[in-house]
Specification:
Radius of gyration: 31 Å
CATH architecture of one domain: Beta Barrel
Order of helices and strands: EEEHEE
Low-confidence stretches: none
Strand order of the largest sheet: 1-2-3-5-4
Mean pLDDT: 81
CATH class of one domain: Mainly Beta
Number of strands: 5
CATH topology of one domain: OB fold (Dihydrolipoamide Acetyltransferase, E2P)
Distance between the termini: 114 Å
Shape: elongated
Strand content: over 45%
Length: 141
């Protein structure tokens, strides 16, 4: 009988942080931190290492913070608490650790549009004729 592997998952999120590290065996890896919104109230942080295409995309400036990323992988750990002054404290965003199998790039954040500068207003001399004051004198036809 085959059972599904419930640890495999696909996540779509936005890149929160990218850091290049060197592992113990002197390999360069890219640590990717991804924000994924589960519900309107809950966001999780997903961290994983990649030394393949994502590292190359990062070094070529094709992978940026804020970019959408779809990741397929296997869940390797969950962290939702940490020790602070000998007190167990919950994380604001639970952290999932993932072994990345596959990924797909998504849209990059759009640059903020700069407002068009307002045209400079310069004083202009009026070309109108002087205003004629009304008089009560009769006008000849």
């Amino acid at each position: 009988m085959n059972y599904p592997d419930l640890q495999n998952l696909t996540l779509v999120g936005r890149i929160a942080n990218l850091t290049v590290i060197t592992t113990r065996d002197d390999r360069e890896c890219l640590v990717v931190t991804l924000y994924h919104r589960i519900t309107t109230d809950t966001t999780i942080t997903v961290k994983f290492l990649n030394s393949n295409g994502l590292l190359t995309a990062y070094t070529n400036n094709n992978l940026v913070i804020g970019q959408e990323l779809t990741v397929v992988g296997k869940l390797t750990g969950i962290r939702s608490f940490y020790m602070k002054d000998d007190v167990l404290t919950p994380l604001k965003q639970p952290e999932f650790q993932l072994e990345c199998f596959n990924y797909a790039f998504g849209s990059k954040p759009q640059p903020k549009e700069q407002p068009e500068p307002a045209p400079e207003v310069t004083p202009v001399t009026s070309k109108r004729k002087a205003k004629v004051e009304p008089t009560l004198e009769p006008i000849a036809f």
